[in-house]
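User: Structure with guanosine-5'-diphosphate, tokens only please.
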Amino acid sequence: MSEQTKEQETKSIELPSNMTVRDLAELMDASPIDVIKTLMSNGVMANINQLIDYDTAAIVASEMGYEASLETVDQLEAEDVGEVPMWRRLIASEDKASLKPRPPVVTILGHVDHGKTTLLDAIRQTSVVSEEAGGITQHIGAYQAKHKDRLITFLDTPGHAAFTAMRSRGAQGADLVVLVVAADDGVMPQTKEALAHAKAAKVPIVVAMNKVDLPSANPDLVKQQLADNGLIPDEWDGDTIVVPVSAKQKTGLEDLLEGILLVADSTEILANPDGEVIGTVIEAERDPSRGVVATLLVQNGTLKQGDTLVVGMAYGKMRAMFDFVGNPIEAVGPATPTSVLGLKEVPTAGDPFRVVESEKEARAIVAEREEKAKENKAKSASPLTLESMFDAFHAGELRELRLILKADVQGSLEPILSSLEEMSATDKEGEIGVNVLFTGTGNISENDITLASASRAIVMGFNVEADNAARRLAETEGVSIRLYDIIYRMTEDVEKALKGMLEPEIRERTIGKAEVRAIFKISRYGKIAGCRVIEGEIQRNAIMRVIRNGEQIHEGPISSLKHEKDDVREVREGFECGINLKEFDAIQEGDILEAFVREKVAIS
Ligand code: GDP
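Assistant:
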């Protein structure tokens, strides 16, 4: 067979996840009637405008001489790697020649009151080109500043919430984090949290050392603290740019923008303006007069007025688009924020969006997602435990064991960290190591759980507790908390998890209590305790504790459980029974028998 005929036999074709019969016919350059006939021969009755899914279309295509594959975005969505956001994967799959530089996207993080909002406002006032808007800019959750004729996109919802929301949805909007540290206050708990977020997202950091105007500012001390946390300032030959600024007096801002561009230039910040259109929702709300207003950050391609978007369960045709100063616009390219009208529902901030061909396709995608969501809900999210982490390693989803460590005092953290540092294991894919994202002292808090959830990490505590709010959040987010009071047990568990040998945690659950009211001696059995079940139930296969005067004197299995003359599997509260214990014959009247079972539990 010649190469040519071979090629003719299997032409390849890219199909979306949903399409009409007419679209499919057009894509194959075939008559819709032929497509309908092929569908019928496969038992699918469809008219020309009917939507069919990819699987069905692929069968039809293959019968008509095509080898079908899913379109790139659909494919990326289906892969759902979790670790790397979809838009980054899309850009990586684009033809290199089509990629063009785009503005870096920056988010500002830091401890409360260190000046994040003031800094964002100061940059907005000094560096935003707002001649067209007469100096008035709107708060849409993002804006663009200009430095030496280059644009920088700032996400201006400071604080962790927005950043975490994006990360936990795998969107990871920012290319760079500006970590604000007040020069008079230094590295504080939320500074460390922010650092951990940036580290987990593998996003480079520029430090803005703020409030240098204050007499109490102590820049050298702050630099030392930064260095202690792994951010060695550039002037100490490290690679973290630390820029002294005063957001209040608007000094140092140019240097900060310069620093941002310097770091941005060391990473490839590219996108294809002509490629498939995808991006992330920055914020969204329902406006009483205008309907749903959503701020979007386009990450690849160019979004145009009239395009149809799908985002989560929301969709709609873009009726109008505005830039961040409020001017109507018709199109926006990569890394540019825009506020849009036209979505039918309020989308969730942090969710990725994409442009589709038609509202019909959008509806089909949303219907499919709703279906999937229902299924997933039924399955109920399984918590991330040390055991499931190892499965994730094997599935290639994770290449490190991520931990958040809390201890009572700093002194306990050091020995734990130094023993964790040396740990690693090897599986078929290579080495797996421990990555401690965050360490801190004090009880486990909601913030720790948020960080763990967004980073797919496990929270381990030494000599600390988890507060109630943290426990509740851990439960809803499916985050695993493990508490220890002996260091080697903790490090041992980590090592076992790495090596895949971790036994599931066994928990004892008391199921019932019985009171011994009489003793019968039967030569064949020994002593039989005549009991009344006073709580719960006694099961034949339970383990019994014998309690005398409040103290446990024995623990062991049951040899026989009788109700009247019959052997039974269980006896419930209020009933009488005869219990014979396997390894214990010193039972007395008045003893309490406590029945319990050992269960494997998902660790929480
Ligand atoms: P955020 O919680 O990090 O957003 O901090 P804010 O921006 O709300 O600032 C907290 C306080 O610090 C406010 O009272 C600001 O006026 C003040 N502040 C912010 N930047 C500076 C600065 O550069 N110098 C001085 N002296 N005060 C500042």
